[in-house]
Amino acid sequence: MQLVFATHNLNKFREVKALLSHDLDLLSLTDIGCHEDIPETADTIEGNAVIKANYVKSVYGFDCFADDTGLEVKALNGEPGVYSARYAGPENNAEANINKLLAKLKGEEHREARFKTAIALTLKGAHTIFLGICEGSITKAPRGEKGFGYDPIFLPNGSAETFAEMSLLQKSEIGHRGKAMRQLIEYLSE
Question: Which residue has the higher pLDDT, 63 or 190?
């Protein structure tokens, strides 16, 4: 089976490809010649995932799954949420996003947060959504060199390590994207 994962993010593509069966031919947006930035105009994480999957199917004709992920911080009323990637501006700069978030939480003791991933699958005319959530908290300073995005400041519940201090396998086992991906994998194997 051939399936497109609607992403230009090489880190995210590698993370997902490592979880999928080797008999699935997984393609990225670059692989299918899609170089445009697909607009994410929905006001929910689920909505953005659906927009991306439907765009690839309608413009390029490939069955596709797309994800959108947001970090929701309780003390900030769910910010950055759907705006996580561009929290500090349109340039999608992870370091600037982290710095803005840490500045907004300065002096805040209640640092509960959660990562939420929605995966929208468009396959053979059917549309399905899978959700993965990982509860945790925001550290006071970045820790670790692995991962991407907010990983250096996200400490999953029950862990002494941030996502950026974990191996890819450890992160996938407990993380939001891994949880959503396992649901997708189970669905594809049926």
Answer: 63
